[in-house]
Amino acid sequence: MPRELTVRGLVLGSVLGVLFAASSVYLSVKVGLTVSASIPVAVLSIALFRVLGRSSVLENCMVQTTGSAGESLAFGIATALPALLFMGYDLDLVHAFLVALLGGVLGVLMMIPLRHGLVVQEHATLSFPEGTACAEVLEAGERGGTTARLVVSGFLIGAVYKVAYAAFRLWREIVGGLLGWVQRMADGSVVRHGFPGASLSMEISPELLGVGYIIGPRVAGITFAGGVLSFLVLIPMIRFFGDGLTTPLLSPEGMLIRDMGPDEIHRAYVLYIGAGAVATGGLISLLRSMPSIVEAFRRGLRNFLATRRGQTVAVPRTEKDLPISIVLGGSLLLVVLIWLAPPLHVNLVSALLIVLAGFFFVTVSSRITGEIGSSSNPISGMTVATLLVTCLVYLVAGWTTPDDRFMALTTAAIVGIAASNGGTTAQDLKTAQLVGATPSRQQIAIFVGVVTSAVFIGPVLAAVNRGETATVPESHPGVRVTHPSAEQVTQREFPFHPGTGAFSDSTITGEELAQQLWGRGLEVRLDAAGAPVAIRTFRGDVTAASLAEEEVRAREEHVREPLVNRTALGSLGVVGEPTQRLLEVGYVRNDAPIPTGKYLSDGSGNIEYVVDPGIGGRVAEVHGVKLTRFEAPKARLFSLIIDGILTRKLPWDLVLLGVALALMLEISGISSLPFAVGVYLPVSTSAPLFVGGVVRWWVDRRRARAESDASPGTLLASGYIAGGSLAGVVINLLHIPAGGSWTDALDVPARLAGRPGWIARVVEAVGDSPRAHPAASIGLGLLLFGLLAVHLGRVALRTREAEVPRSV
């Protein structure tokens, strides 16, 4: 009997599962999408075991099974839990761990009694495409045909490329800009130049290029078309008709439409249209699957009852499942744990609803996965359906407080994770059947993968958010937070006395100093004349002496060209000893005239700061420094549904426009869900997906056939995704210590600014720098991104057929 369930296999699978889970978390909060990790994990398992010692196809199967659990849990966590940030809560690591663990375990438990009926009895009708392709890879690896070098090379290219622009800032992350503007004359007239309100941009990231390649030209093109509608039609239209308004419409910040840029209009208005379209598209995909849903549930229940009535005597190894007592006992235990676990705040009604809806949607997910694969499985639609039912039950019961909204999200999140992991488990069990693995041992491996991945997914999500969280000065006179907490934070204020003439126009302005120090976690307070009078920070490692040594860039005096000199802050003025201020943490949860979120107030309750999260934050720029923000489209949709139903404050007119848009597309024969996601996302995110789809179209056309899930282009694209995403996670982690001073040290253009030589001038001109030359910086970014895309296409075309496992 070959080795199958081994300790080294479980350890390797867990490690790979955590790595791909981190990648999936990053990708989910960025674009609301993930790709299957099963095949890359299988390929890497084969390659690593060749280094560590020989392995069997069964042991590699267990590694793949353990590792694949991370991706399915990550998708559920990263698409649901960021909604807490939009609802005025913090991310709680214990809560995230329990949601991931309980949802993952529920998915596996519910799938065990369905395995024989779906995987074995319907072998001829359910193809399980990813599971079948993964079995091919494992068997090819057994024969020596591994293609792990494609995944590894893609990983290294994606990681190095990401670090070069995101950490070293050698070129811009997003290229593009406005296509027009409005000029207001002194006599009150308006002159319109170009296409006001319209903008086009593209994030030149390896992970989004890889995702576009894998999802293919049709889905990528439809998604980009949604972005075109938003940024070239809807936003310019809103800007045109709202330019003359003198009162704000929906903007919680009270901004006039004419004062908004494209991104602000998108967040304030188009977001609701996109949310209505996304919800409708998800429900339509769910309704379209209803015949399969009813049939899957009926067959699963019939097969389960028939199996339990009969007495099996000599069960073959390849047919041994975990005993039914574990399924029943585990389900009862889950109800109790979900009900009694304090961090979840779930009552008995919701606990029972979770288990019942979990069993139903695991059956649905497993069946759909068998028919069309995991990538097309409408998990978001199932989560939305659960959320709608839950919210309606709560509304009837009168459960509409912020704590009830928290409970509704937790209920839907656990069900969504169970459905996601149930579909992944079904694919893994199909792989096991094809390679001759033992189902019971594989089910144990999945449980191990669920536990290990659940431990790390929450911290990764929190790190991605915290790395880009900004504490921004913001006051709301007369408004108090509605949910104060006992938490306090310490801020230190250093008095600053500028030297004579230090901040004249010929050297450096106070605003320029504030811009330079902001990224280092230092806030410069300016007086009415624009001169700095104090420096505030929440960092604990800053002293008056270290602050005086902070390096800044100033122009030489009495020169015509803006020659930049590097100097110490202490040479511009005197830094005094700090005084400490205690600020109180509080929250607004859709029950105040200011935006929902986390705020810091002084001892009198006056709001002084908003703690703007990296995921879904509403502040795009501070002192001219653009902030990185993760859109998390699915999570925002969930928060809109919860708040819209339970608080009855949703702008239904805009939401219904989105509903009508989705219905129009479906009537026209176009899949509304990817288009709606494109409407919801920034066009800078959907544009690289489109480029990846174009590369895939070109490859398929040259090869005269569509690529399989185990083809070289797909494997290299998977490496791009993993390398770029994991590098992004690591860079975000570097933002956390010392208020971001670590990443500031990696900023090459800033380090070279003002230094002599042509290299410094070129790097500052093309890099992500305030003094970058727009055309040169954009041109370099597009050139390098084009080379990345060309390399993907060439690898997909030049690899010999013998190196690629055949598809069934």
Largest β-sheet summary: 8 strands, antiparallel
**What share of residues is helical?**
55-70%
- The shape, in one word, is globular
Span between termini = 27 Å
Structural class: alpha+beta
Find the count of extended strands (DSSP E, 2+ residues): 14
Note the main attributes of this structure.
808 residues, eight-stranded antiparallel β-sheet, disordered C terminus, two-stranded antiparallel ribbon, alpha+beta, 59% helix
Please sum up the structure shown:
The chain has 808 residues and is an alpha+beta fold. It has 27 helices and 14 strands.
Give your account of this protein's structure.
With 808 residues, this protein is of the alpha+beta class. The protein is built from 27 helices and 14 strands. A hairpin with an 8-residue loop joins strand 10 and strand 11.
Topology of helices and strands:
Elements: H1 7-31, H2 38-52, H3 57-80, H4 83-86, H5 93-111, H6 115-121, H7 129-142, H8 148-166, E1 174-184, E2 190-203, H9 206-242, H10 262-288, H11 290-309, H12 324-340, H13 348-372, H14 379-397, H15 402-435, H16 439-467, E3 470-473, E4 483-498, H17 510-518, E5 522-526, E6 532-537, H18 544-548, E7 551-555, E8 564-568, E9 573-575, E10 579-588, E11 597-601, E12 607-612, E13 621-622, E14 625-626, H19 633-646, H20 652-667, H21 672-680, H22 683-703, H23 712-735, H24 741-745, H25 748-752, H26 758-766, H27 774-798
Antiparallel strand pairs: 1-2, 3-12, 4-6, 4-9, 4-10, 5-6, 7-8, 10-11, 11-12, 13-14
Helix pairs in contact: 1-3, 1-16, 1-23, 2-3, 2-7, 2-8, 3-5, 3-15, 3-16, 5-12, 5-13, 5-15, 5-16, 6-15, 7-15, 8-23, 9-10, 9-21, 9-22, 9-23, 10-14, 10-19, 10-20, 10-21, 11-13, 12-13, 13-14, 13-15, 14-15, 14-19, 15-16, 16-23, 20-21, 22-27, 23-27
